[in-house]
Amino acid sequence: MIREFENRLATYIGSQLTGDFEDRVFVAGAEPQDALVKISLGAIHHEPWFPEFGSSKAEQIPGQQDFKRVLRLCVEVAFRVAAAQGQGRAQRRLAMDALLYLLEDKEIAEGSAFETDQDQGFLIDEFKPSSSALPLLETVEAPAEIYCKAKGWFWPAGMAGQAGIAIQQTHIRSETLRLELLTQNPLLLAGGDPVELQLKLNHTGFLLQADQSPQQLGLDFLALRLRAANGGPGLGSVAGSAQGANGLAITAVNASGIASFTYTPPANPGKELLLVNLTTGGLSEAEKTAGLPLASLSLKVNAP
What we know:
By secondary structure, the chain is mostly beta strands. It is built from 3 helices and 17 strands. Strand 9 and strand 10 (215-216) form a beta hairpin. The model is unreliable at 167-175 (pLDDT under 50).
């Protein structure tokens, strides 16, 4: 639960900082015994996230099929900076500046930066700084501190889901989809030019409702976004026929089931994931948001 959140937070924040602060973020009590700068973090206060605290209603965790009972909590997280040996307030100030700037990132604020494909025992809905402090005088040895509030669901990682009641009757919207990347083994070069790619959907959609005949359904748009291999934001960029909500690339699906988009590789070689979702939301492309997930495709970026 909260311990898993602390570990994921330390790993992710450490991977996003640069210079002297890169990979120097640790869960409190697990700091190495060396003379380098250290950023410690930990959950120091928890309170109910009203009005749902104490609810016995099971929730379906995104990416998982079963339902689990979750705690809805607002968790206060403290970051504390200890300067390297021979350094002082100036280094603590630099570390605080780097942290404050990073913590305002949109994906961190929305909690999506901490998501992975694993059952982590938490799902963060909001993560925002609330206050910070830094001693004014060099003679004061108290370290720099930043406090943040995280709102989300918490449950024991790996906990078995709850069994439900057998379904007697339901209205079903069912779609059978097979998605493939038409461009086989595309040449993606680090720092290279944008590459035009195509997705092919072999789509059969129908709507079943009580006392009605099945209705054929079409599919007009897909929502695309990138994720790094470690679960963080993608380093390249993807563009479709329009820019949707929350930075999504919206691409139209033609009558043949083909969706075209442009991928711009990042500056460095590596792998990242292309996440493909159905769309939901407004009538215009710019108002659409990500709906049900369809596929996760690996994109390998090679050195020039």
